[in-house]
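Fill in residues.
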């Protein structure tokens, strides 16, 4: 028996966490850790650390949203990225954002390979059609960087025509 890849799900909106977990659970391919506050999410993240946090952790992916009560730099995504940058032996944990907040500045920060390096930025209203496929590509095909590059490129192309008008 092989162990299933572990996916951490965190958001302050309990209904969103439950919806995402249900969608991931339908695949039968992953074990999920559902967390409803940032402290529990960070604890779960630390439990899956390897080499005292110096090596990449054992989580296959993190699925999260934005906390509307916090500044962009204080978001969970950036706390995780700051921890990962402390060691040259760590790779960024693949991240998927599911949100209803469509602020272009947040999306730019999240998809920017130097800041958030998010694999996918999904809309809360219609993520169910895409999540399973994106997660499969991230975990089993190890395409997190390629997905981030494609999403970043598409966002920049979308922003360029708006700037030239």
């Amino acid at each position: 028996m092989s162990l299933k890849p572990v996916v951490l799900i965190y958001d302050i909106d309990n209904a969103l966490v439950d919806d995402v977990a249900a969608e991931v659970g339908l695949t039968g391919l992953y074990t999920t850790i559902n967390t409803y506050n940032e402290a529990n999410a960070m604890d779960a993240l630390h439990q899956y650390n390897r080499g005292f946090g110096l090596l990449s952790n054992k989580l296959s992916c993190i699925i999260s949203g934005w906390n509307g009560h916090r500044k962009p730099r204080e978001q969970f995504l950036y706390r995780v990225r700051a921890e990962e940058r402390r060691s040259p032996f760590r790779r960024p944990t693949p991240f998927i954002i599911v949100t209803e907040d469509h602020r272009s500045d947040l999306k730019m920060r999240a998809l920017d390979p130097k800041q958030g390096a998010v694999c996918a930025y999904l809309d809360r209203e219609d993520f169910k059609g895409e999540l399973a496929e994106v997660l499969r590509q991230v975990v089993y095909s190890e395409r997190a960087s390629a997905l981030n590059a494609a999403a970043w490129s598409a966002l920049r192309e979308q922003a360029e025509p708006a700037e030239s008008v």
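Helices lie at 14-27, 38-47, 76-85, 104-111, 131-139, 144-164.
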